[in-house]
Amino acid sequence: MKREKYKLSKEYIPLLNKKYDAMRNNARGDTSLIAFVQIDFTLDRVIGGDFSEKIKKGDKYTDIIRKEKENIVDINERIVFGETLTPEYLNECALGGTSISLEYRRKSLHDNVKTLWIRNDIHFSINLINDHILAYVYLYDIDEEKETERFLKYMSTYNYDFVQRVNLITDNYTTFMSNRFKDKFSPRIDGCDYFNRFRDDSVSLYDFEIIGDDFKKEELIKHLAKNTEYTKNFTVTDENSEVKYKRITIRYIDNSKSILCVMQQDFTQSMIAEMDKNIKLETALNTAKKANKIKSNFLANMSHDMRTPMNAIIGLSNFGYEESNEPKIKEYFSQIIYSSDFLINLLNDLLDINKLENGSLKLNKDVILLSEVTEEVLNILRPNAEDKNQKLTIEGQYFIDENYYEIDKHRLQQVLLNVLSNAIKYTKKSGSIKWEIELNDKKDELTMVNKISDNGVGISEKYLPSIFEAFSQEKNVLSISEGGSGLGLAITKNLMQLMGGSITCDSVINVGTTFTLEFPLKKAAKNEIEKLKEIGIKELGIDFKDKTVLICEDNNINTKIASKIVECKGAKVEVAVNGKIAVDMAEEKNYDCILMDIRMPIMNGIEAAKKIREKGSSVPIIALSANAYLEDMKESIKAGMNAHIAKPINKTKLLETIANVMLENEG
Q1: 69, 398, 399, 419: which has the highest count of C-beta atoms within 10 A?
Q2: Distance of CA 253 to the CA centre of its chain
Q3: What distance lies between CA 452 and its chain's CA centroid?
């Protein structure tokens, strides 16, 4: 609302009336003027003016105001109108010499569906004959003015080349343009074929056909019937031979869908910025990929270089433990084996977290009995619990479940061992750890819920949200003395998600901790169960008498370890120190099994396996490699090998694998 203040005195009235007469004469020539009404404000009556049939001479002005308020569309504008044009406020403005100007959107005078913007100007004077207060009311149609403001706002806000208002009924249009387009379009063209002219102007302007058949009146109307707007991006070459990026946007701006707003926007700068951003992102991505590859190669090489000597340490320590009769010597070997296993677990954690980060870790489908899996886990953990005089108990009906399930056995045991070993580690001597198993069997699926509780040191409320982060470990007396990589729970969390399960933790400091692991198990198919029963040969029943095994290995200690493992089951052993020799020996003699190292001089194990298969041999080949990545295992299988065992060699796993592949080959 605008006010114009002046001193309302009888001396000033003649000049004021002269001014208003001039305003009235000028207003009569203004095409936007809807009505002029002269009011005797003292009598609250219309006394003259130019107005529609809806207003009559003698009408009460307060009634006119009330009816006008009812036609205002916006609630806030209606409130301002009502608060401003009260008799009290109008009288105050009249006596104080204040003009009033209000702008609002009201229903159309001839159509209640359509709306238009109105400016209501009110000026006051005094009748010098009877001292009555007079009011001069001017109503203007400012619809086009408001649209112009809106278009100009679009242009200033979004860097538009031009904004056009197009009347679909008459094809009239008005163009508002930025400085760089002021010579390209006329400000207003009436009665022309807008759409054809626009295409012609576009072609001449850019020497380029930017608009296809979809920029026709009928096609646009069809498109806008289904969508809120039509948008087309294109490029043009300007007079300086520079490529510019443009966007045409068309939408309705009225409820009757007869007025279009056509906007052409230059988004060259934002496009250049986006391309620059994409280049930087691509560069960063390539750098990250390169760094990840370097990291993976480093870990693979480190893994290989560490596993080779660790294989010798663990293998020879096992032999020393088995062959020694001295309790003290056996204890030394036992400590070496324990420390070596700890180092291997740390190495495996590093490899696992790397594979989980880059998404290369894949799950296997093993057929298992839960009773066997849980018993194996307990057998691994019991010695550690007994060393601390802890009570390790397991509860549940899992042991009477005779169903076979399909799951990655290694990963299942890994998550259980991670949580249970933490419970043992962070529980003091003579403490207790309880493992509860609940099976919820539904049709062909089983939900296995494992609740692992201890009365150990607990986890602080502050640290609890961070327990599943990599390299995270809360400092306490036991964590300092027990050590660890801080990767176990991070790996467990990721593996649980990979298996479609979940893990949660509740803990109270100095009271204890409870982990709940829940994941689905799928019942195994009958044919897979039968296959397992046929192949499942245990170590105690393995006999390699009359079998000859070729060991292809360039490391003398590793050769001795592998040889002793198979010889103890009655097998004869022959040795090749590189892949080429192994290929020649396999061609000359039929072996029952070949144990193939991967990294060897002259010819590596992958090439050797391919050569043997190319010669038509079906002899079982098992890769014995310090390469422990899934990609390495896949490469071995692709080369024609039957299995891949990562070093350090697990005696039981090696013997079972040899027995299984030989049995399959004989079948």
Answers
A1: 419
A2: 36
A3: 33
What are the structure tokens assigned to 459, written together?
């986890």
Q: Are residues 412 and 463 in the same domain?
A: yes
pLDDT digits (tens, 9 = 90+) for 80-124: 999 998 888 888 888 777 889 999 998 887 776 778 899 999 988
What residues have CB less than 8 Å from 302, skipping those under 6 apart?
A: 347
Task: Encode pLDDT of 631-663 as tens digits.
Answer: 788 899 999 999 998 888 888 889 989 998 998
Q: Is the pLDDT of residue 161 over 80?
A: no
Last residue of a domain, one of 122, 141, 160: 141
Domain assignment present for residue 276? The answer is: no
Residues in the chain: 667
User: How many domains does the structure of the chain reveal?
Assistant: 5
Whether residue 656 is found in the same domain as residue 577: yes
| Other Cβ atoms closer than 10 A to 194 | 20
Last residue of a domain, one of 510, 531, 552: 531
Strand ranges across the sheet with 230-237: 188-189, 173-177, 160-167, 259-266, 243-252, 230-237
Shared domain for 408 and 487, answered yes or no, is yes
Nearest to 236 by CA among 193, 279, 184: 184
Domain assignment of residue 223, yes or no: yes
In a domain, 271, yes or no: no
- Domain co-membership, 379 together with 525: yes
Alpha helices by DSSP H, 483-546:
488-498, 526-535
Which residue from 173, 201, 178, 177 is spatially nearest to 189, judged by alpha carbons?
Answer: 173
Quick one: tokens of 343?
A: 């180092």
In a domain, 428, yes or no: yes
Helix, strand, coil shares of the chain, percent, nearest 5, are 45, 25, 30
3-class SS at 452?
strand
According to the model, what pLDDT value does residue 399 have?
64
Task: Return all residues near 595 (Cβ < 8 A) that are at least 6 apart.
Answer: 549, 550, 551, 552, 553, 562, 566, 622, 624, 658
Question: What is d(CA 577, CA 597) in angstroms, rounded to the nearest whole number?
Answer: 9
Q: How far is CA 479 from CA 332, 334, 391, 406, 489, in A?
A: 25, 23, 20, 36, 14
Domain containing 624 equals 540-666
Whole-model pTM? 0.46
Residues 242, 291, single domain; the answer is no
CATH number at residue 16: 3.30.450.20
Residues 431 and 526 in one domain: yes
Helix (H) or strand (E) segment spanning residue 413: helix 409-425
**Whether residue 566 has pLDDT greater than 80:** yes
CA distance 83 to 88: 10
Beta bridge partners, 368, equal 405
Angle subtended by helix axes 61-70 and 75-84, to nearest 10: 170
In angstroms, the CA 483 to CA 534 distance is: 43
Kindly state whether residues 400 and 459 are assigned to the same domain: yes
Which H, E and C letters describe 138-162, residue by residue? Answer: EEEECHHHHHHHHHHHHHHHHCEEE
Q: Strands of 33-40's sheet, edge to edge?
A: 2-5, 98-107, 115-126, 133-141, 33-40, 45-50
Distance CA 307, CA 647 (A): 6
User: What CATH number did the domain enclosing 382 receive?
Assistant: 3.30.565.10
Residue 47: phi, psi to the nearest 5?
A: -115, -5
Distance between terminal CA atoms of the chain?
98
Contacts of 198 (CB under 8 A, 6+ apart): 211, 215, 262
pLDDT tens column, 479-537: 444 545 567 788 889 889 888 899 999 999 989 999 999 988 888 877 777 766 655 44
Are 233 and 94 contained in the same domain?
A: no
